[in-house]
Amino acid sequence: MTSGSRDLAARFLAAAVRLLPSDRATWGFAMTGELAQLTDRGERWRFVFGCVRAILLTPPGRGEPGRGLVAAVGAVALGCVSVVAYGLVRYPGLRTGSAVWFVVLAFLGALVLYVLASMQVVARLTRLGDGLLGLGLLAGLVLAGLWLLIGATATSSTAAGVLPVVFIPLGSLAVGAAGAWRSRSATTGRQVAVLAAVIAGLVLFLGWVTMAVLTGGRPYDPGLLRDFQSSGAPDLATYAVDDNLGAGMMLLLLVPALTVSLGSVGSMIAGRLRAGRH
């Protein structure tokens, strides 16, 4: 067993323990101590997942919305896994590529990192309060909707297709700036942007790939029809779904990276403006 896998399990549990209220801190210490005694990798991860489930299922007290939000993020991540698994079963041609299982493993790794990031950020923002969790959640959902609108209007030259391209970078800047302004901290603004980024990436992927799998990748544009002729794919639907899956995987990485980058810029600007006023 590598030290990296040990560290990841410990970090995952540490992030989950931060979601516990202060009166359950001893429970968290006990979990962490027991994990340190386990050496088998499979046993360690089973223990960690059991602890995380127990933490998330523990009824929250007043002012503890964080665990519910992390559970929702985890549910969306599980939905992403489910729709990809369904696509691989529904369209067997997707499983013929030499690199398909490497891509699947990378996809699962990205989901684990996103859920871990959400747990860490939510734990920090919960302690700060001031509606920061709600801000990150709302911004993430809005950004995901704007990206989906771009996909739905990709062949349109109307304002419906142009406006999302303008509002996405502005929204990413704004969420970091709003978080920094409300909390008086550029660091906190970046954390709000991270939460929005994770939610946007996961919700976008789930919506994008679900539509592709259920519709067979329709509608088929002329470019896709032309490329299919020389693709060697077994059928048009498989080729279209494969194309959408590839785009979804790219967006799963691109959207969070873009949101965090622009959100960090927004938080830095707002933090300096806020400091200048005082």
Concise description?
By secondary structure, the protein is an all-alpha fold. The chain is 81% helix and 0% strand.
Percentage of residues in DSSP E strands: under 5%
Series of secondary-structure elements, N-terminal to C-terminal: HHHHHHHHHH
Radius of gyration: 21 Å
Q: Count of helical segments? A: 10
CA-CA gap between termini: 52 Å
* Structural class determined from secondary elements: mainly alpha
Mean pLDDT: 83
What does this structure look like?
This protein has 278 residues and is mostly helical. The protein has two domains: 1-58; 64-277, no CATH class. Helices cover 81% and strands 0% of the residues. The protein has helices at 3-17, 25-36, 41-57, 66-90, 100-128, 132-152, 159-183, 186-215, 222-229, 236-277. Helix 8 (186-215) packs antiparallel against helix 10 (236-277). The longest helix has 42 residues, at 236-277. It is flat. Mean pLDDT is 83; it is low at 1-5.
Topology (SSEs and partners):
Blueprint: H1 3-17, H2 25-36, H3 41-57, H4 66-90, H5 100-128, H6 132-152, H7 159-183, H8 186-215, H9 222-229, H10 236-277
